[in-house]
Specification:
- 5% of the residues lie in helices and 37% in strands.
- With 515 residues, the protein is mostly beta strands.
- It folds into 4 domains: 4-225, Cadherins (Immunoglobulin-like); 233-332, Immunoglobulin-like, CATH 2.60.40; 340-446, Immunoglobulin-like; 465-515, no CATH class.
- A hairpin with a 5-residue loop joins strand 9 and strand 10.
- Residues 126-234, 234-341, 342-455 form the Cadherin domain.
- This is Cadherin domain-containing protein.
- Its main location: membrane.
Length: 515
Amino acid sequence: MGKLLISSTYLMLILSCVESCFLLRSLYVIVPEIIPAGYQVAKVETVGCVAKSVQLTVKDPSFTIKSNGAVVALTSVSVGEGGRTFSVSARDNSGLERKMEVHLVRSTMPKRHRRGQGSLNRSKRPACRFPTSVVENYEGNYPILLEKLVSEPSASHDMYFTIEGEGVDTYPTGVFSIDRDTGALFLLKAVDREEFPAYNFVVRAFDRHTNVELEEKFPLRVIVDDVNDNAPEFVGPLHFTVPEHCSAGTVVGVVSATDRDRIYTNHVKIKYTLVSGSDMFTIHPETGVITTTTNTLDRELKDNHVVTVKIQDMNGAPNGLFATSTATIALSDINDNPPAFMKSSYNVTVQEDESEKLLLRIPVQDKDLINTSNWMSKFVITKGNENGNFRIVTDPQTNEGLLYISKPLDYEKTNDVQLQITAQNVASLNGSSATWQSIPVNVNVEKVDAGSVSFGLLGIMTMLCPVVLLLMLFLLLAFFCLTKREKLQLNEPGNTGRIPLISNIDVPGDSAVRN
């Protein structure tokens, strides 16, 4: 039985769906260890080219290429274990040149006995054959011839071929088929690299007469070459925060993107650009890091900035696929605005004997973020309160300063107090040259006369108390007189000179003296 040879002479590698004339990208050919002069190594085929308009050249002086694409050895060539590689170029009338790499692989199979001359000696094959490549999503006509398995002419009629594995009888099925008589391997439909990047199956050769398998199962791998059919996609949120008035060059955040095409190729090399917002921000074209270009970002003027980010593969080449999205950059607040008083000064009056009384509400304005420590006010009496007669607190609802008299003042000692009130924040000032503001508060003290009557509730009660006592005594006397009236009535005295009573009057002590 003649030995089985694997020829990639008919390998059809689809490189582009839009080119009208192209070469195969690479060709693997198994050859003898010693290639004799005149031996046809392979036949280079161009696709979509007019034969007379294409000039073919070979870069190895040991070989020549004929007008029909046949590569022939000019001299005897020895092929080592590492193989031998040379290139073939095709140039058309427009001057456009395309190249193909031809890889010569030395055969390692021993000679076999012809049928009837002894038993078949099987030899181990390499673990894996050089892979065959196909381009994903090809839009041409199917089926497409990928490779042809041929034997020596004297034995070609003695065997047939089968294949099994991925793309044939296991998922995804119906992708490849083989002509059992010629060993021609066909691609039946378009394949998607992102769905299935490679197919592994085995080729088997059988004796046509006895159906006995002639060789070990021969592994074959078909790699799906990538085309740039996936636009890059944004990954993760596009919302960032940076402090206002930060210095130029401050990192805002990182825009992340991914591409489903093949890694380590320009198909996934993404370039980042800003379509809008480049007056205040910039983005690194390779890393996607957004940084500031100014230190004038002011939250009080504009608290959010929206920029448009563009991501484009092929490193930003015009033919690269791209996507755009908006990123929101929020400015966080810093305490760059001190509280400002609404008036430049205040006057207030207090009586000398008053205490724990609210004297004044002092409103302020603050441009910083409301209900934060940058906005909340803190008031301090910085002058005039050496004796501790006053205190000031902050109204948490209105952010006003509330000035109280906490201890009575003495008019004789002072009738006028000059206070200085300073408005601060809970947080320290940051990123601003401004300072805390202060205003004067003039407190006028009124004298209270010692003999003067206060007509408050207590004063009225004090004034009415004697009147009430007199009224109560009068009522008691009237009651007594009414209840004892009969006992006090007198009879006619007549001529006796006596004053008779209608009834006896009980007198404590000695009995009444009788006349």
